[in-house]
Specification:
48% helix, alpha/beta, 18 strands, single chain, 15% strand, 544 residues, six-stranded mixed beta sheet
Length: 544
């Protein structure tokens, strides 16, 4: 229950909420965003305590469920999608001819609009996740600005034709590889990092000179609505267009003949996207997910490992690269669990009430996802898992306490399905062989994390596993490195993104070979064949 002295303030904000939700000209994302802006302003003015504000978050979620159409958004008419597609197709020749300087200018305009809207972005992500502003700055805004800076710095070099050497058999020719835009790009982005996972691939598409249509997630309503407005300030619809709505909008977009589709999401939906792309022989980048394992061996610094692995709970564990389960050497197991619990408390509070009130701990995106994650927890406990920490959930505002589990049986769902939430199973091991066997029994992960000071252990793990990326003695930091490729392998993804690799994803590498002289080396091998021809062939096979 809220203290009596704050109830009038809460009642005032709730009245504001109702007036905003009843405004007919606003979309649902705008209504939700408007409510949170109003409530946060009122909180600052009246000094409503944090726990009262989070009570309002729950009220807003409940009101949204009551008022929201069953489609989770207004479906965009099919003819409007097709109209914009045709407009963009007609504009492709112009985009193809744009210079590096012109594309860089667009990227800089995008950066400026993002920085100018830093506070609305923070408010939108608070509305969608109750995410801390600092976390938004670090994991959403900074990563996008860094991606823009990296592309702007290197784009002129990326776009230059690449000269390649000439083999002896083709003397008299010259060859280059020219970078040209693939054409029409489609970006379908997820809800967990809705801003960054939309903007980063967009930077690659703009750098490549493609026209882009974007379908952001309908679950992160406030952020999707804001992105649509911001992108309209920078790009005309014939360059970049955003379509919000539910799965039917995605279906309508996937029916069109795009040249490249960049999808970030789950493996099951990735298969649907790939099937749709196959209808038009479109290339794809699929950034998927899976169960990313973490290993803490007998030589690891347990305290450092615990601190870094505890960062899994940022965004309430809703990250495709978050550690999904941890193998800890049996000699370090108890010490690691103790250190991990202490670190979670240091991050978010000493008990569940403090963690629930912490301004730094996010919420799950919606009730459906909350129920899915809690079902994984309930199944593990029913099968005998021991709760070392956490386990408390509150469906009112989709809160799940950071949860650490030990003695998790192999058949528990939590060890079979990607968690995508604030649950972390800890599994003891005696030898690296059993760890390797466990990792290799599952599909290749998006990331693998290893804490070790033993070069032989590191080499053994690297040489006997496959993963999209591997970090040694840290977790998730690879996502912030713009110069290395990001992506999965097999079930965890197809293709790579970030920096140059996003540029390549939206680019056709077109080889061009030019014959410079009237008489060529290859004329020696034209029919009719003779003994001389055979001798020349033998020489080629022997010496080249």
């Amino acid at each position: 229950m809220l203290p009596e002295e704050f109830r009038d303030d809460v009642r005032c904000v709730l009245q504001s909420m109702h007036s905003i939700f009843e405004t007919p000209d606003l979309g649902w994302g705008s209504r939700l965003h408007g409510f949170f802006v109003a409530s946060m302003q009122h909180q600052r003015a009246s000094h409503i305590p944090t726990e009262a504000f989070f009570f309002l978050s729950g009220c807003c979620a409940m009101e949204t469920k009551k008022a929201m159409p069953a489609t989770n958004g207004v479906a965009v008419p099919l003819d409007e999608i097709q109209r914009v597609f045709a407009v963009q197709q007609a504009f492709l020749p112009h985009l193809r001819r744009t210079t590096a300087a012109e594309r860089i200018q667009k990227l800089k305009q995008l950066e400026q609009v993002i920085l100018d809207n830093r506070h609305p972005l923070r408010e939108a992500l608070t509305a969608d996740f109750r995410k801390a502003p600092e976390e938004t700055d670090l994991n959403e805004l900074f990563l996008v600005v860094q991606e823009i800076h990296h592309a702007a710095k290197h784009l002129a070099e990326w776009m230059k034709p690449e000269k390649v050497g000439t083999p002896v058999a083709l003397l008299g020719t010259s060859a280059t590889v020219q970078q040209e835009p693939k054409g029409m790009g489609l970006i379908i982005s997820p809800w967990n990092y809705p801003f960054m996972l939309t903007m980063n691939p967009l930077v690659g598409a703009v750098a490549a000179g493609c026209a882009v249509m974007i379908k952001p997630s309908e679950y992160a309503m406030a952020t999707s609505s804001l992105m649509k407005r911001l992108l309209a300030e920078v790009f005309d619809e014939h360059e970049v267009a955003v379509f919000t709505g539910d799965y039917r909008v995605s279906q309508a977009l996937l029916a069109l003949p795009f040249n490249h589709i960049y999808f970030t999401g789950s493996p099951p939906v990735g298969k649907i996207v790939m099937k749709a792309a196959a209808e038009h022989l479109a290339s794809v980048t699929l950034e998927l997910g899976g169960k990313s394992p973490t290993i803490v061996d007998s030589t690891a610094d347990v305290e450092a490992a615990a601190q870094r692995i505890a960062y899994k709970f940022t965004n309430a564990g809703q990250a495709c690269v978050a550690p999904d389960y941890v193998y800890v050497h049996e000699h370090a197991h108890d010490g690691f669990v103790k250190a991990l619990k202490q670190q979670v408390k240091a991050f978010y509070g000493a008990d569940v009430s403090q963690r629930m009130a912490s301004p730094d701990y996010a919420r799950l995106i919606n009730t459906r996802h909350y129920e899915r994650v809690m079902a994984l927890y309930d199944d593990a406990v029913e099968r005998g898992a021991h709760v070392e920490m956490g386990g408390t959930g509150n469906d009112f505002d989709c809160f799940i306490d950071p949860t650490i589990l030990t003695h998790v049986p192999d058949d528990a769902r939590i060890l079979q399905e990607e968690i995508f939430g604030p649950l972390l199973p800890i599994l003891p091991f005696a030898s690296l062989d059993e760890v390797i066997e466990g990792i290799n029994s599952r599909p290749h992960p998006l990331a693998l994390y290893l804490f070790s000071t033993s070069p032989s252990h590191i080499d053994y793990v690297l040489n006997n596993t496959t993963a999209g990326t591997t970090c040694i003695n840290d977790v998730m930091v690879h996502f912030g490195h713009p110069a290395i490729p990001f992506g999965g392998v097999g079930n965890s993804g197809i293709g790579k993104g970030h920096g140059y690799y996003s540029f390549l994803a939206f680019t056709n590498q077109r080889p061009i070979i030019e014959q410079k002289y009237p008489r060529t080396t290859l004329q020696q091998f034209y029919p009719p064949y003779s003994k001389r021809t055979q001798k020349l062939i033998d020489l080629l096979l022997k010496y080249l």
